[in-house]
Amino acid sequence: MTVVSVAQALAGKFPEGGEVTVRGWVRTVRGSAALAFVNVSDGSGFAPIQAVVADGLSNFDEVKRLTPGCSVIVTGTLVKSQGKGQSFEIQASAVEVVGWVEDPLTYPIQPKPMSPEFLREVAHLRPRTNLFGAVTRIRNCLSQAVHRYFHEREFCWISTPIITTSDAEGAGQMFRVSTLDMANLPRDGAGNVDFSRDFFGKETFLTVSGQLNVEAYALALSKVYTFGPTFRAENSHTTRHLAEFWMVEPEMAFADLAEDARVAEDFLKYLFKAVLNERADDMAFIAERVQKDAITRLEKFIEAPFERIEYTDAIALLQKSGKKFDYPVEWGLDLQTEHERWLTEEHVGRPVVVTNYPEHFKAFYMRLNDDGKTVAAMDVLAPGIGEIIGGSQREERLDILDARMAQFGLDPAHYQWYRDFRRYGSVPHAGFGLGFERLVVYVCGLSNIRDAIAYPRAPGSAEF
Ligand code: 4AD
């Protein structure tokens, strides 16, 4: 028995006329009194394979009772298919029913388009649909390409911690980790919670970013990156925010902001090329059913050089645009999504890197520019999504870093180790963070980030 994946069988990886076995779940069953056509998917590629079952089979009656979702093992001869759009099919010599669907009428995954809202309620079963199968394979392809990109360029992958004491972004959006009895919290003389009696002996949180930890490794191994889950307790009920999302964060010693932007552009283009090359079947489905220009816009993205605009110039352009925005446009205020979209979609019509933002609303670790008013920060904005990457050159001068931490009211006691990099062989360095689900949203043309991750975590939502 040669067990093969459906994708390989359809790709002609096995000799025509040979015997193969596929294992998977039934998508659809059609047929007549004498023949049954059973479409079987094992998720290895977009298309299911058709098994043609004749009534001579000893359990033909059983096969006719199959419904979507049943699990089966099909053995038979691989033959060229006469059917439209199918390369090969299996003339079945045996169909073993491994698991029945208990109640086909209440099985949530039906062979018809279902709304993403409904499917979010059955997140544990949605990978069986065409859409979530495609999104999952595309996400996997992007993850593999992330590692390949960095590996090919001598970056070292660092696994940074999830439990931490420091607020990497200084924005106070951290989830607390504690083993203390909430109903009976130990308190010190001043009435503050006594975290010395907690598991780690101090107050700990889920990380908002691996950046501070990965900087340490950049200042020893030169080119590094972290790729893992990050957590933000921001109460954002938007289609662009998750409480738990994955971030790719490269960090490079001896790099400035211009080099940072160059790598960000090269990296994104590499990822899009990988997905177009490796997931053509899933992208064709996305283009047909989700986003008409899904393929062409990635192709355009790959070809277009990113525009670079300084924040100060971006403000002037927005003010001169004559466009009515909901949020004010003024030097010193952050850009809102509507501003970002105007810049990238209407003004330049391709991705834009906005640089050198006012220092007061950007993170404490970003390098202060000579004007004393701006920091060497960048946001990469993409048509159709807005901000997808945020990065900066880091402040490598200890005195300025200390002043910035004081300005942001951060307790230096929590950042002693981070200050050490500036005390021992400090060098200019830079990095960025790519929100991985925002990337998946963009590639798959999704309208909600909750569909870009297997089990979305958002305010009021932590099922499964
Ligand atoms: O701009 P952010 O906050 O930057 C950092 O965390 C830096 N430490 C990165 C670095 O320089 N190493 O976040 C980076 C990216 C954003 O551009 C966005 O794509 C994504 O992370 N992001 C979110 N994605 C989903 N849900 C959220 N709540 C997100 N917050 C940020």
Automatic annotation (TrEMBL):
Subcellular location: Cytoplasm
PROSITE patterns: AA_TRNA_LIGASE_II
Location of the Aminoacyl-transfer RNA synthetases class-II family profile domain: 137-456
Chief localization: cytoplasm
Entry GO MF terms: asparagine-tRNA ligase activity; ATP binding; nucleic acid binding
Reaction(s) catalysed (UniProt annotation): tRNA(Asn) + L-asparagine + ATP = L-asparaginyl-tRNA(Asn) + AMP + diphosphate + H(+)
Top-level taxon of the source organism: Bacteria
Entry's Gene Ontology BP terms: asparaginyl-tRNA aminoacylation
Pfam family name, one: tRNA_anti-codon
First-level EC class: ligase
EC number annotated for this UniProt entry: 6.1.1.22
Keyword Disulfide bond included in the entry's annotation: no
GO cellular component terms, A-Z: cytoplasm
CDD domains: AsxRS_core, EcAsnRS_like_N
InterPro entries for this protein: Aa-tRNA-synt_II (IPR004364), aa-tRNA-synth_II (IPR006195), aa-tRNA-synth_II/BPL/LPL (IPR045864), Asn-tRNA-ligase (IPR004522), Asp/Asn-tRNA-synth_IIb (IPR002312), NA-bd_OB-fold (IPR012340), NA-bd_OB_tRNA (IPR004365)
This protein's UniProt keywords: Aminoacyl-tRNA synthetase, ATP-binding, Cytoplasm, Ligase, Nucleotide-binding, Protein biosynthesis
Family assignment from sequence similarity: Belongs to the class-II aminoacyl-tRNA synthetase family.
Complex and partners: Homodimer.
UniProt protein name: Asparagine--tRNA ligase
Gene name linked to the record: asnS
